[in-house]
Amino acid sequence: MHLRPSIPRTLKTAKIKITTKCNRSCDFCIFADGAQGENMSLDLFSTILTRLEEIPFQQLHINGGEPTVHRDFPWLSEAARTRLPDKVMVLGTNAITLARNAKIMEAALRSYDQILIGCDDEHGNYDEVHTVVPRLRAAGKTVVVNSVLEGITSPRLVQLADLCDRHGAIHVTNHVHHVDVGQPANELRGICDRYLDQHLMIEMDGSCYRCFNAMAKDDSEFTIWDEDFAAKVFAPRSHHFRFCLRCHEYTDSGSGAVPTPALTA
Q: Which residues contact 263 (CB under 8 A, 6 or more apart)?
């Protein structure tokens, strides 16, 4: 009996961090450096798209930092939309630039299917969110507004919920979830069930790890430069990242390792 590889698993989301620049300075954020941040080069972004063309995946999530402050945001967005036309394009943003810059808003409307907006006291973007949500929804975009409960008052929550209800957007809430903010250590057993979903984060320098909450400089597994990049995306993994111990979203899957794609007869 000969074994042949089955259809490979499909990556749920590939997430590209195109900048560490941001127009806000949220205390809980570990992914941005304010005005002192850096932008990903066009050459590196193009190389990443070439690598992503090699693997099956569903969504391309562009984030930062604040991705809309990247000086080449329209070009990057159009390039991704053109080269990966069958993927769901997702933008993670605070919506400030979308509300204030018509060129950036038009680029977002052309290229993205879903807009994920962080909105709370830390972001300080209530006016901008109230401006952009109606326009995005009128254009048929899926809009999700996310508020950190520790950073927003009850009246503001009610206002955002009402805004989303009136325009058909989605309002979600969560607790501060960035790594190591004083929570007790997790008791690590099985690999996180979120990890089993197969998310790929691609950092500013092209380093990669398969979880959204990590910092690649500490836990990078491989890079987009590796010749066997496509194989490494779905390779099994049997040990935790360093940040798993402090991750708010770690949930024990009961699995001792991420499985390799199954073989069938």
A: 3, 4, 5, 6
